[in-house]
Amino acid sequence: MSSYQDLLVQREKLEKQIEEAKAKELVRIIEDIKQKMADYGLTLTDLGFGRGKPAKTNRPRLGVAPKYRDPASGSTWSGRGKPPKWIAEKDRNQYLIQQ
User: Fold this and answer.
1) Dihedral sign (CA 34, 40, 43, 45)
2) What is the pTM of this model?
3) Of 1, 54, 71, 79, which has the fewest Cβ atoms less than 10 A away?
């Protein structure tokens, strides 16, 4: 039976072998990916990694109807996101827009 120290040494050797094998495979995989990107004319943006703007959809983005109105300024708020200062920590019922 192996001692605890012997097993720790074996584990260190195995971890080193694992890292070396991973590094070798990683080089091969990266070269394969680069070659496929070149063959198909792909960019990082095509793969979702670039800083390019996301593709636009044909569907228009619809806004949310305002739910609250500040009687003093006329400002409105939909009730989504961080509340504006004029309604924060106040009873929202008094600011409801009647429909």
Assistant:
1) negative
2) 0.41
3) 1
Rounded to the nearest 5 percent, the helix, strand and coil shares of the chain are 40, 5, 55
Query: pLDDT (tens digit, 9 = 90+) per residue, 23-81?
Result: 999 999 999 999 999 999 988 888 888 665 666 667 777 788 999 999 899 999 999 99
Please say whether the dihedral angle defined by the alpha carbons of residues 27, 29, 42 and 59, taken in this order, is positive or negative: negative
- In DSSP terms, 76 is beta-bridged to 69
Among 89, 67, 93, 71, which residue's Cα sits nearest to residue 80? 67
For residues 70 and 86, is the Cβ–Cβ distance under 8 A? yes
